Amino acid sequence: GDVDLDDGADLARATGYADSGSLLTTELSHVYQLSGFADPVYAEAFVTVHDYDIVLEILLINRTPNTLANLTVELSTMGDMKIVERPQPQTLGPLDQATIRASIKVSSTETGHIFGTIVYDDTSTMEKGYINLNDIHMDIMDYIRPATCTDEAFRSMWAEFEWENKVAISTSIPGLIEFLKHIVKSTNMCCLTPHDEEEKGSFLAANLYARSVFGEDALVNVSVEKKDDNDGKLAGYIRIRSKTQGIALSLVDRITTVQ
């Protein structure tokens, strides 16, 4: 009979992704569903990020009763990424499955996208099939590490770096310290400015610092105040400076999304 793979949980168990959750998080791995269960070929990618290298292990399941020949996953990228190993073509029998591999080199911290299409020949109908895949969105947080530096070094980099982007604070978080902690955690940065947890003031300023695995510095200055005339909501700006545009824009996107 036909294999019913509509149950995502069963599929996760079958492919071994269900019970190894703790392993996945430490290796910065993500699973992306690339096509739907109703498509002739079901595809999902197990993506591992290790510094400059991204490895894609793509599970392919032939959902048809026909043999599919010359089945190829054609990949392309957007951003500072280069495909160094392309997946090999496969022949998949009826309801058969295979795992193929692709490698991508990354050269800077910016949000990258991987796009793909599955192309195959159906040996029964003699027709060519195409499936457009969901794109894989690489997370900048995989490349950023908290770091420390002296006040002098921070000030000198701040003066030197030409890329500055500004994000207006718009948040539902009520407390100054709580907001700062949320931004620090969400951006994977290190707060260089000490703060008293019990601080009761209406204004807070802090410097945050991080480095990417590519050696890029990222500087952030948070300047936030609690305004009575703003229904007690927080207001202010988060300024981001870096030497390269990619990391600055990616941090802007990240802060805008999480605040």
UniProtKB/TrEMBL annotation:
GO terms for molecular function: structural molecule activity. The keyword Ribonucleoprotein does not apply. The keyword Transcription does not apply. One of its GO terms (biological process) is intra-Golgi vesicle-mediated transport. Its main location: membrane. Residues 9-121 form the Coatomer beta subunit C-terminal domain. InterPro entries: Coatomer_bsu_C, COPB1, COPB1_appendage_platform_dom. GO terms for cellular component: COPI vesicle coat; Golgi membrane. Residues 128-255 form the Coatomer beta subunit appendage platform domain. It is found in: Cytoplasmic vesicle, COPI-coated vesicle membrane; Golgi apparatus membrane. It comes from the Eukaryota. Keywords: Cytoplasm, Cytoplasmic vesicle, ER-Golgi transport, Golgi apparatus, Membrane, Protein transport, Repeat, Transport. It is a peripheral membrane protein. This is Coatomer subunit beta. It comes from Thalassionema nitzschioides. The lineage of its organism: Eukaryota, Sar, Stramenopiles, Ochrophyta, Bacillariophyta.
